Amino acid sequence: MVKAESPLLFYLEIHIDDFSFESHKRRGEPFNEQKVFENVTYILNRLNDSLEQYGARANFMFREHYPKKCLIYQDAADNTLLTLEKAGNEVGCHCHGSRLQECFEAVRKCGIKKPRSICPGVIIHLRQGDTKSPQVLTFFREVENLGFKVCFDGFYKGGKEGIQRIWRPSATDIWVHDPKGKVVAMNIALTPMDWGMIEFGRGWRLNQVDYVTRKNFERVIALFQRALSKVESNKVNYFGISFHEHQFATDDFNTVTPVEEAFENIEYLLGELEPYVKEGKDAYSTFTEIYNAYLEYE
Q1: How many Cα neighbours within 13 Å face the side chain of 114?
Q2: pLDDT of res. 108
Q3: Range 8-297 has CATH code 3.30.230.80
Q4: Distance separating alpha carbons of residues 62 and 20, to the nearest angstrom
Q5: What is the per-residue burial (b if ≥16 Cβ within 10 Å, else e) of 33-63?
Q6: How confident is the model at residue 199 (pLDDT cuts 50, 70, 90)?
Q7: For residue 15, what are the β-bridge partners?
C-alpha cells in the first residue's frame, strides 16, 4: 500500500504489444507463432524475476493477442497474466486507440477478474490537439463503461521537468471525470520520446535493444533525481517510465529472441533506485495505488 509520507511514487509500465503476432502478416514473412509466444513469455517471466530480486513491482499492460495465446498454449488457471498478478504486479489493458472491448475480454478470460487500469491509446486521437472532439469523448466514455478506474496515457508532452503530476480534472477537460467520478486520467510521467525510445526519421520506429541501454537508464536516473527535487508537499507526486516487451529482444518482431544484456540493464536501473526505496524517498507503485492515493489524499 502506498504510504502518504512517500514523497515520490515510482512506476514501471510495460506494454505487451501485438506487433510480434501481427507484423508477419503485413510482410508475408515466415512466422512460428508458438516460438514467438514462448519468447515473449520468457521475457515477461525474466522481467518478473528481476523485479522480485529488488522487491519491485510493475504495471503489465496487455493488448489482446498475447492473452488469447495464453489460453491456447498455457493452462487457463496457471497462465502468465495470473503469475504476474500473484507476484504483486498490476495487470491491465493496452490499446492503440481501438478494440478496447476485445482487449478487456481477453485479459478477463485469463483470470484477471477486474482490470482497473488501462493505457488506451487516447494519444492517437489527440495528435491534432483536439481534446474535445466527439471521437475522443466517445472513446473515453467506453473506457469508463468497461469499468476501468485509472487511465494512463500520453495526454501531454511530458517529462521535460522530470516529473508530471496527476492530470487534475477541470471544466475545460470535459472528457475527464472529476475525482468523484468513475475514472481518473493520469499523464505518463516521462514520455518515451524524452529518453530515447522513439527514433524519428522516416516516420518513427521503436528501437529494439538499443533503447534499454545502460546509458539511457543513466539518463532516467538523472531525471528521477531531478523529480525528487521538485516534489510538492500535500500532493501525490509520481514518476515513471514506459517500455515494451519487444525491446528486450533482438530482431524486429519476427522471433522476439530475448537478449540477456537488456535484462542486466533493467537490473542496473533497479539497483540504482534501491537506496532511495530503502530510505523511504521512493516507493514502487501500481497505477491503482497511485489512483487510490490521489483519491485519499487529494
Answers
A1: 8
A2: 96
A3: no
A4: 13
A5: eeebbebbbbbbebbbebbeebebbbbbbbb
A6: very low
A7: 61, 244
Q: For 33-70, write each residue's pLDDT tens digit.
A: 888 899 999 999 999 999 999 999 999 999 999 999 99
pLDDT at 266 over 90: yes
**Interacting residues of 123 by C-beta distance below 8 A, sequence separation 6+:** 153, 154, 155
State how beta strands 90-94 and 59-62 pair: parallel
Residue located via cell numbers 539518463: 219
Cell of 61: 499492460
Q: Which grid cell sits at 206?
A: 521503436
Rounded Cα gap, residues 6 and 18, in angstroms:
35
Q: What is the pTM of this model?
A: 0.85
Task: Tell me the three state secondary structure of residue 90.
Answer: strand
Question: What phi and psi, each to the nearest 5 degrees, are found at residue 7?
Answer: -70, -25
Cell numbers for 167, please give them: 492530470
- Cα distance from N-terminal residue to C-terminal residue, the chain: 16
3-state secondary structure of 282: strand
Whole-number Cα distances in Å, 290 to 140, 149, 235: 20, 11, 11
Residues 140 and 100: their CA atoms lie apart, in Å, by 10
Could you give the C-alpha distances from 154 to 121, 151, 157, in angstroms and in order?
8, 10, 7
- At 43 the pLDDT is 95
Cell output for 139? 472513446
